[in-house]
Design a protein that fits this description.
Elements (H helix, E strand, L loop, with lengths): L4 E7 L5 H14 L4 E5 L5 H11 L8 H25 L3 E5 L2 H11 L4 H11 L7 E6 L2 H17 L13 H17 L4 E5 L4 H18 L7
Parallel strand pairs: 1-3, 1-4, 2-3, 4-5
Helix pairs in contact: 1-8, 2-3, 3-5, 4-5, 4-7
The site of thymidine-5'-phosphate (TMP) has 12 residues, from α4.
Length: about 220
Amino acid sequence: MRRGLFLTLEGLDGSGKTTQINRLAAWLKKRGHSALVTRQPGGTETGDRIRGLVLDSRSTNLAPMAEMALMFADRAQAIAEVIQPALEAGKIVLCDRFTDSTEAYQGGGRELGSATVLELHRLICSNLQPDLTLLLLPGLEASLHRARRRNQRTAELSGPDEGRFEAEQEAFYGRVWRKYREIAVREPDRVVLIEGDLSIDEVHEQIVEAVAERLAGLATGTYA
Ligand code: TMP
């Protein structure tokens, strides 16, 4: 059976990924495609537990290598349990973050370097590559502002504490931001860079344009 289509969304905290992934899923549904939406870390029962552990600001003193290993443990589980079976069934998978996040946050932000992340991806994830990655990269200032606001709202709502990354300093986010740009420059065929402080509608337009192009290129395929 033909392999499905694997799409990932990437960006800093507060870049609007979740809104855009939901709008893209609705857009696909309207055109008769059913998309499976998942996220990392999370998306499986084990992954949700890893998410709780790794994002909770009470997880203090987590070593960068331990943090990266947890991200890959989550990803290995998600690939085995959700992503690979869906792709084998010919489905469209929309994944909110994938290994580019590890390269940007742990490779760039935590300064573990790209080479280690890419090597682990090859070993742990059989080097599974997205067919298309949509990278939302508004200006750094705008991203930081949105991340702080979101974190404050989450704290007020007494939901699960997911603030460990958002409590990071601006220098950390600067490194994440620059690593994301580096990935986009390195892999222009896979990564569509959506830059600037655009409206939600404008970002959606750019996303559907890129996705429509990929779908047209695969017009002979069928998606469940
Ligand atoms: P989210 O709120 O967009 O789901 O992101 C969860 C946080 O986890 C976000 O701050 C980025 C971080 N993260 C990493 O540091 N490395 C990774 O590999 C992934 C998937 C997420």
